Amino acid sequence: MSRPFLGFGLGLRTDHYQHVIEHRPQVDWFEIISENYMVPGGKPLANLDKIRADYPMVMHGVSMSIGSTDPLNQGYLEKLKGLIERVEPLWVSDHLCWTHVDQVNSHDLLPLPYDEATINHLADRISQVQDFLGRPILIENLSSYVSYTQSEMPEWAFVSEIVKRSGCYLLLDINNIFVSAHNHHFKPETYIDAIPSERVMQFHLAGHSYNGDMIIDTHDHDVCDPVWALYEYALRRFGAVSTMIERDDNIPPFTELRAELAIAEAIAAKTLTEQQLEISGRALLRGAA
């Protein structure tokens, strides 16, 4: 898979369905949460079909539990594959974590120990998923709040080795790097510098909240200035990477979120050359509608 540049997108949320359907705002693409549409019918799928007719999409999952020691959930994978056939996404992603234990869903994205045994376990399971889906997947780095005493390496070395061994790609969450760097006392630039550029397919941007001395990845605030600065650093390191903003709580009107996305566009326009953005047949950056 080569790295296409989709431009600048948003997470598609129910609050904005009607605005998007009625106004067809200028957004290059949307990311959907896969599990919200892995159903046989109903309004979510009906709205999705309408929006998909006008916009490219990617799919982002939260329940694959790729790091669990439970067997891979074949029923889940079959539903995911069915949704892929319906949506025809540019790519499909999930998180580098575990969510299930003894077939019980924790409904949280739980971290993994950074060691050789876990790398082997993950590389094998990612390969199984990719073989079943017939395509490479993207994995996303987590925000983390605890660490394991048995970890043998830093997170960036762990992530880099997994994408190398499994052949998957990376959804690099810039906010998650910032959050984890604060919580675990490392330089976020060190993380970015260590990631193999050719494996980075997408960026996430989001807001976070402080809980005492700890930062929590809450997706309920605007992207803050230090994360924008880290995004610029990542653009200089990786070049043009498809970028989107996640917002899952305290969701503003669509026009406000679109205005925030324009900040990402402006940073990319300042940081990258037109050749790096690999855009043909349209303006380098289009203004927000």
Could you characterize what this model shows?
With 289 residues, this protein is α/β, with parallel strands linked by helices. It has one domain (8-277): TIM Barrel (Alpha-Beta Barrel). The protein contains ten helices and twelve strands. It has helices at 17-23, 43-52, 74-87, 116-133, 155-166, 174-184, 188-194, 225-238, 254-271, 274-277, and strands at 8-11, 29-33, 57-60, 92-95, 98-101, 104-110, 138-140, 169-173, 200-205, 209-211, 214-216, 242-245. The protein has an eight-stranded parallel beta barrel with strand order 1-2-3-4-7-8-9-12. Strands 5-6 form a two-stranded antiparallel ribbon. Helix 1 packs parallel to helix 2 (43-52) and helix 8 packs across helix 9 (254-271). The protein starts with 7 loop residues before the first strand and ends in a 12-residue tail after the last helix. Residues 279-289 have low confidence and may be disordered.
Helix content: 25-40%
Sequence stretches where pLDDT stays below 50 over 5 or more residues:
279-289
Domain count? 1
Radius of gyration, whole Å: 18 Å
Structural class comes to: alpha/beta
Query: What is the level 1 CATH name?
Result: Alpha Beta
Main sheet properties: 8 strands, parallel, barrel
Strand count: 12
**Strand order of the biggest β-sheet:** 1-2-3-4-7-8-9-12
Cα end-to-end separation: 32 Å
Element order: H for helix, E for strand: EHEHEHEEEHEHEHHEEEHEHH
CATH homology group: Divalent-metal-dependent TIM barrel enzymes
Please tell me the overall pLDDT.
91
User: Which architecture per CATH?
Assistant: Alpha-Beta Barrel
- The percent range for strand residues is 15-25%
Counted by DSSP, the helix tally is: 10
Q: What gross morphology would you assign?
A: globular
At the third CATH level, what is the topology name? TIM Barrel
